Structures are given as C-alpha cells and as structure tokens.
User: Fold this.
Amino acid sequence: MALVLCTGSDESLMQTRKLILENEGHQVVLAKSLVAVENACAENDFHVVVLGQALVAPEKRRIVDVVKRACRSVKILELHGPGKESKVIADADDWLEVPAQVPQELATRVTALATK
Assistant:
C-alpha cells in the first residue's frame, strides 16, 4: 500500500481517482491547489504523486518542485491528454494518457511505482 498525493483541478475526477486507488489499498490525499500540496507535504512523506491532466504546465512544474523537495524518494505519475506532446514533466517516473482505456490502469501504474 502506498501513500499517494493526488492533484488536479477537477474535484469529481479527483474523487474518482481516489476511489480507484483506495479500492486497491492505497491511502490517498487530495490537493487541489499549490498551498494544499505544500500543507500535505509538510505532514506526509508521499510515495507517489499523481498530476492531474488538466493542470496547466507551470502548475505541474511547481507541484513537482514542492513535492520533490519535501519527499525525496517520491515517484511522479503524470496524467496527460492525447499525444506525447501533452506531456509536461520530462523526468516523470511514468505517464498515463487519459482518459485511459481501462480506468484500473491508474491503480496499476501507482502500485508499480510504489514498489520500485
């Protein structure tokens, strides 16, 4: 089981992702703003951070900076839209194009990252 920080801008998508991940046994903290990310990182040592696809590129980069400073061994999973050009975080540990063909793929990727 991993401690996962799930970020994004759409509350309903974030709640859905949380349910998917919790059903696989992960503990999930949601953060919809950079301040919420900073507060969550001050209180937790996350294993994986999931970057929502709708976050704008500068926001994704700021979140990654904050999380990597707070949680040195954190793994980054960037969700992105169709096409490789929509990837923002070049050094992410993994990427998942959304919407995924199989929603369960999110949990599979997070579990794989957490066990690396």
Observations:
- The two ends are 12 Å apart (CA to CA).
- The chain has a mean pLDDT of 91.
- The beta strands are 3-7, 27-31, 48-51, 75-80, 94-97.
